[in-house]
Design brief:
- There is one protein chain.
- With about 250 residues, the protein is α/β, with parallel strands linked by helices.
- The chain has two domains: about 200 residues, Metal-dependent hydrolases (TIM Barrel); about 30 residues.
- Helices cover about 35% and strands about 20% of the residues.
- It has eight helices and ten strands.
- The N and C termini lie far apart (about 45 Å).
Length: about 250
């Protein structure tokens, strides 16, 4: 079984590159050290790397799939292995026009409580999606967004893939996908489409999640919302425990 992770950003990302401090080569080296066999670099609205990265990945024993995290009406959509990518800010019609039989479309973090989550896009355009992401950006007490994604995937008959959404190298290895396929792009993508995959995941700690929020230089609104949500989770957990022991 291959280990795959299909959601990564690098320092040349036009949106997040101001805080991502590693190159495509650094990412590939770290993936090799972590035992990852299949990798996709999915920068926001662009593909800011060339064939040298693909060749270097192959030298390290990794299949690198070209990818992009497109924006559709403010929501994110992962595009993998497109021969010609649509514009970074595009419509689902643009994606449909550019999608070929060997391309893959994944709904990233679809039901997270943020405007960039693609739940509405996934629901409205089920026929264009090939898989739903289980995001590695969660803790033991905030897994319900991923549970929602898994339940939706079951309802609409789509496979689930585990992705780390790496912006910091320490994220890699917590959540990934086992793929029953040989190490060849077409076979890997076909295995994902047909659900020959297995989710492997373990949650981040609250400290790791807060480290991500702070180190990614999130806005004060994001920090405030994150802390508010944490307090709500803690209160809900305490109430549940009191009810269990009463």
């Amino acid at each position: 079984m291959l280990r795959g992770d299909f959601h990564h950003h690098i320092d040349s990302d036009p949106t997040d590159g101001h805080f991502v401090n590693y190159s495509a080569g650094n990412l590939i080296d770290h993936a090799a050290a972590m035992g990852i066999h299949v990798l996709a670099i999915t920068c926001h609205e662009s593909v800011p790397y060339d064939g040298d990265a693909t060749r270097y990945a192959a030298e390290r024993g990794i299949v690198l799939l070209r990818g992009m995290e497109a924006t559709v009406k403010g929501q994110h959509v992962l595009l993998l292995n497109f021969r010609e990518f649509p514009p970074g800010v595009c419509t689902m019609a643009d994606i449909a026009a550019a999608k070929t039989a060997d391309a893959l479309v994944i709904a990233p973090h679809p039901f997270y409580p943020t405007g960039i989550a693609g739940g509405a896009t996934l629901t409205a355009h089920r026929e264009l999606f090939d898989a739903v992401e289980f995001s590695g950006l969660y803790t033991a007490l905030s897994a319900r967004f991923n549970r929602h994604a898994m339940a939706h995937a079951r309802t609409v008959g789509l496979p689930v893939v585990g992705n780390s959404d790496t912006h910091f190298l320490w994220q890699m290895g917590y959540t990934y996908t086992l793929i029953d396929a040989p190490a060849e792009p077409a076979a890997i993508l076909e295995a994902i489409r047909h659900g020959r995959t297995q989710l492997v995941t373990r949650p981040l700690s609250w400290m790791q999640l807060m480290r991500f929020i702070v180190d990614s230089r999130s806005t004060m609104m994001t920090l405030r919302d994150g802390l508010t949500y944490m307090r709500q989770i803690v209160r809900r957990t305490r109430r549940s425990r009191r009810m269990a022991y009463s």
